[in-house]
């Protein structure tokens, strides 16, 4: 029997995800599997999952802005601002999978682009990307009204919650500001708004001052926790 609809399902489908693809890595419908190896959500070394094995892409002279645009599209991030070559984000592990990409920049997946299996390309040449920061990457889910709910983030193409430990009014105020809502009237912890099906927490120990324009401007730790209790917020009056 199919489970009842999760509150996050419409958001997932809007961003092109299959239903509840909660894992440490981004899994998008019909475009393969990709991740950024980085502590930053919009830039890092590019890695692909091919035949069950994670590997990197050769960042030689063929890796350009067209290829980076396709990679950012796969990650569900805004358009690429830079194609990174020469292993700038550090060497990866596993095989160097592909080289000599010839993307036009309009493809939905790097696997749609002409390319060659990599031969002789070392991890010192691993490719990376810098994608523009997404503007709509924080959601309130599970509340009775749009101004309340668990705080869900879209990080490196993966949806996840924020661990409630250390969550305070300053952190909540920044989330409300991002959503264009009044300041927080209440902060909630320990899954007050429930736990979304299959959800992991991706961030913890958020330490906002309260005047930041984005939650991602605040010091925080990026860490996957399987059964963390999510933080939530009520912005404005409790309705």
UniProtKB/TrEMBL annotation:
Main location as per UniProt: membrane
Domain of life: Eukaryota
SRCR domain span: 34-132, 138-236
Position of the signal peptide: none
Presence of keyword Disulfide bond: yes
InterPro entries: SRCR, SRCR-like_dom_sf
GO cellular component, one term: membrane
SMART domains assigned: SR
Keyword Mitochondrion: no
UniProtKB keywords: Disulfide bond, Glycoprotein, Membrane, Receptor, Repeat, Signal, Transmembrane, Transmembrane helix
Record's protein name: SRCR domain-containing protein
Organism: Nematostella vectensis (Starlet sea anemone)
Lineage, uppermost ranks: Eukaryota, Metazoa, Cnidaria, Anthozoa, Hexacorallia
């Amino acid at each position: 029997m199919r489970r009842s609809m999760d509150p996050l399902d419409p958001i997932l489908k809007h961003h092109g995800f299959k239903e509840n693809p909660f894992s440490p890595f981004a899994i998008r419908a019909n475009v393969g599997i990709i991740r950024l190896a980085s502590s930053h959500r919009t830039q890092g070394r590019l890695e692909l999952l091919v035949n069950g094995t994670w590997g990197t892409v050769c960042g030689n002279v063929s890796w350009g802005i067209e290829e980076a645009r396709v990679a950012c599209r796969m990650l569900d991030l805004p358009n690429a601002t830079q194609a990174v070559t020469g292993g700038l984000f550090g060497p990866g592990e596993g095989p160097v999978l592909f080289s000599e990409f010839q993307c036009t920049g309009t493809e939905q997946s790097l696997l749609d682009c002409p390319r060659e299996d990599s031969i002789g390309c070392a991890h010192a040449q691993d490719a990376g990307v810098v994608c523009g920061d997404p503007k709509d990457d924080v959601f309130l889910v599970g509340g009775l009204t749009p101004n309340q709910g668990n705080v869900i983030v879209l990080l490196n193409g993966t949806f996840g919650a924020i661990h409630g430990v250390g969550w305070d009014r300053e952190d909540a105020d920044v989330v409300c500001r991002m959503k264009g809502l009044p300041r927080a009237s209440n902060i909630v912890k320990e899954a007050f708004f429930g736990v979304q099906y299959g959800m992991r927490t991706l961030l913890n120990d958020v330490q906002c001052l309260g005047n930041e324009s984005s939650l991602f401007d605040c010091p925080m730790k990026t860490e996957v926790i399987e059964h963390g209790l999510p933080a939530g917020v009520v912005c404005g009056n409790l309705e």
